[in-house]
Design goal:
This protein is mainly alpha-helical. The protein has three helices and two strands; from the N terminus they run H-E-E-H-H. A hairpin with a 6-residue loop joins strand 1 and strand 2. The termini are far apart.
Length: 66
């Protein structure tokens, strides 16, 4: 799975928080059968941030969290 496809997959589970104006990734929106794919996507983006491929700030922007 590419970084771009991981980001696109994770965009589908962005949800508004109970805290006004905040968003987060919500794995409870994913069916059990698809959960492993979303966990792999999360791992992929975490490695990308750790390796400096993109910043945490840029990742949040691309996911639509900010």
């Amino acid at each position: 799975m590419s970084l771009e496809s991981s980001i696109n997959k994770l965009k589908t589970i962005v949800k508004y928080s109970t805290v006004k104006g905040q968003k987060h990734l919500d794995l409870s929106l994913v069916s059990a059968g698809d959960r492993i794919d979303f966990e792999k996507a999360l791992a992929k983006i975490n490695v990308a941030v750790k390796n400096g491929e993109l910043t945490e700030e840029k990742l949040k922007q691309r996911l639509g969290l900010i």
